[in-house]
Amino acid sequence: QYPPGVFLRSNDPSGLRQQVAKLLNTWIQICNKSDGTSQKQNHAQYLSLLQQKGVLKGDENADRFFRITTELCVESSLTAVAGPGAALEESKDNNGKLVKRPLSYTAIDAFSKLVVLLVKYADVRSKTSLLSKVLEVVSGVLRKELENRRMRGLEATMDQRPYFRMFLDLQQDLTASYEAENLSDEHTLAMLQRFADVYHGVLQPVLIPGFAFAWLELVSHRSFMPKLLRSKTESGWHVLQSLLVDLFKFLEPFLRDIQLSPAVHLLYKGTLRVLLVLLHDFPEFLCSFHFSLCDVIPPTCIQLRNLILSAFPRTMRLPDPFTPNLKVDLLAEISQPPGIMSNYTRALEESGLRPAVDMYLQTGQNSMKFFADLNEHLLIPVAKAKETGTRYNTPLINSLVLYVGIKAIAQLNKKSTSASLQHSAPMGIFDHLASTLDAEGRYLFLNAIANQLRFPNNHTHYFSCVLLFLFAEARHEILQEQITRVLLERLIVHRPHPWGLLITFIELIKNRRYKFWEHSFTQCAPEIDKLFDSVARSCMNPAAAAASVADGTPAVSQIGVVNDSSLPKV
User: Fold this and answer.
1) Cα dihedral sign for 67, 197, 167, 152?
2) CB atoms within 10 A of CB 479
3) Alpha helices (runs of H) in 282-393, residue ranges in sequence order
4) 107 near 24, Cβ under 8 Å?
5) CA 425 to chain centre
6) Nearest to 132 by CA among 120, 119, 117, 146
7) With b meaning 16 or more CB within 10 Å and e meaning fewer, what string describes 212-222?
8) Which H or E element spans position 99?
9) CA 434, CA 470: separation in Å to the nearest integer?
10) Cα separation of 460 and 451, whole Å?
11) Radius of gyration of the chain (CA)
12) In angstroms, how far is CA 386 from the centroid of its own chain?
């Protein structure tokens, strides 16, 4: 048995811990009794007391004061008797048994108010540096407790709730204080950036898995995520994007192997909820960063990827993909490029492949050497392949496909001729990859194309044409079967489905040029035949989909684009 707080205490000078404890208790009393008239006077007196004691004089003293105060607050929350109304939550004791333990947050709440007070009276230039110091100290205490527990094999028994409360208090209280002071958007964003730096560099789930649930709640909280997305500059969007990438990188090994323990499954459901909020309230964010987010989502997570790819700008009215004889190429939006804020060329540049790609696209020369080297560039070392579960550099494939597609669209706009699509250098790259990669590489390549089938824009139109062209000109039926698989597996999951995905599949099964229903893979087994029939009914006549249940056909009645009723329940 270890008493709470034993993993927190440090070797400090004699009497210093008692001195800080007295200062903390004095501050708690001030917080409990201060009213509107005496609050400012009490705060001024307390700040004078801190100055008199010299606890904030110099970086070393300030670090020590904040560290000991944090340790005392966490220990207090685990040992103090919680007041009326405190929730009795389940946690593990040192023997791993589940117990009901009330937590008292009085000291933590008071500590947050003290930090807000100190930041408030700091000059504008010092606010963010002071906050950074506090956040680094708090996260350092968390890591220290975790390490101390790990050495004794008690890492799983750590209670993340006191730290969660501390970060959440600071987030909320500082946001409210900045708003009350009418500080500019620039200062608010700088404050949120300090939190993001700690969440990304110190506390992200890959580094501290035991803090993952608290981390996700903090990142998605109304005092953080919406503030970043409503900032007047794009930097707030980039901050949130990097944090979501951190989350997906942590989940990726579990989702790739489909090994979801109850805890990971719960975290996955929480991730879906965050994406649903973004899809409903901030779809432009998902539109802008679809590439970098899909880059870290394994192919097995079809619904997760569909949620991201189904986003479209709130100012756009999506044409009904089920409209008979819909002329996609005549839509006004289909000639407009989408905004992409992701760095989609990074993997291409890091691999050293971009100069060769540019040379081939510009001149078309040395094609035999270029194609001979291209497939080798897409492979990764054997040791890394065992770790990642694939022989291929998936981010490089995604980067190559989008980069070549954007170059192709620029060329087509200059030539203004639809006939140049099939005879272009970019299509030569796509045709080469489709015909020479093995089944695994070709599946990743086709997925990279399907990731661009989104709302109406010229990327969606171009890559839809590419996929249909590859299907029509395929020299082997295995390619047509894989194209069908990539499209179909994205359609048979619950809504929403990307608009571009729907119009591509509808064109594939309706246009006689592709002879879709004549291929053997559509009729290889009775259950496959029924599945194709159900999807076809849903795509060509959604209202008739329910009728397929009567004759024993599997029901695929959830096909459709985004609306409030189509969002999945999690």
Assistant:
1) negative
2) 19
3) 283-288, 290-295, 302-309, 346-350, 354-363, 367-377, 382-388
4) yes
5) 34
6) 119
7) bbbbbebbbbe
8) strand 98-102
9) 8
10) 9
11) 28
12) 25
DSSP for 197-234, written as a single string: HHHHHTS-TTT-GGGHHHHHHHHHSTTTHHHHHTSSST
Torsion of CA 500, 505, 507, 512, to 10 degrees: 170
Task: Measure the CA–CA gap between 306 and 402, rounded to whole angstroms.
Answer: 18
| CB 312 within 8 Å of CB 287 | yes
Three-state helix/strand/coil letters over 289-314: CHHHHHHCCCCCCHHHHHHHHCCCCC
Distance between CA atoms of 38 and 30, rounded to whole angstroms?
A: 10
Cα separation, 105 vs 162, in Å, equals 7
What angle, 0 to 180 degrees and rounded to 10, lies between the N-to-C axes of helices 161-180 and 59-79?
120
Q: How many CB atoms lie within 10 A of CB 528?
A: 13
**Burial of 509 (C-beta count, 10 Å sphere; 0-12/13-18/19+):** middle
The residue-averaged pLDDT of 71-95 equals 66
How far from 423 is each of 288, 334, 418, CA to CA, in Å?
A: 31, 22, 10
Q: Tokens in use for 231?
A: 């900032």
State phi, psi for 257 to the nearest 5 degrees.
Answer: -90, 0
The token duo for 470 is: 């590859």
The residue written with tokens 């993340």 in the block is 160
133, 197 Cβ separation under 8 angstroms = no
- CA-based angle 23:24:29, to the nearest 5? 100
Full DSSP string of 28-49: HHHHHH--TTTHHHHHHHHHHH
Token pair for 329? 């190429």
Q: Are 96 and 33 in contact (CB under 8 A)?
A: no
The count of C-alpha atoms lying within 13 angstroms of the C-alpha of 366, restricted to the half-sphere facing its C-beta, is 12
286 in the Ramachandran plot: left (φ > 0), alpha (ψ -120 to 50) or beta? alpha
Nearest to 71 by CA among 158, 162, 8: 8
pLDDT at 171: 96
Secondary structure letter of residue 492 according to DSSP: S
Which residues partner with 100 through β-bridges?
90
Q: Measure Cα distances from 254 to 244, 389, 391, 511 in Å.
A: 16, 12, 18, 40
Quick one: pLDDT band at residue 96, thresholds 50, 70, 90?
low
Neighbours of 10 (CB within 10 A): 12
Rounded CA separation 304/271 (Å): 9
Note the pLDDT tens digit of each residue in 21-69.
999 999 999 988 766 667 888 898 999 999 998 888 888 899 999 999 9
199 contacts 228 by C-beta, under 8 angstroms: no
pTM: 0.89
Tokens describing residue 508: 């594939």
Pair of tokens at residue 100: 């009901």
Q: What tokens were used for 484?
A: 């069908």
In this model, does residue 562 exceed pLDDT 60? no
Q: For 336-349, how does the pLDDT look when each residue is reduced to its tens digit (9 = 90+)?
A: 999 999 999 999 99
Instruction: Encode 499-538 in three state secondary structure.
Output: HHHHHHHHHHHHCHHHCHHHCHHHCCCHHHHHHHHHHHHH
Q: Tell me the residue type at 51.
A: Q
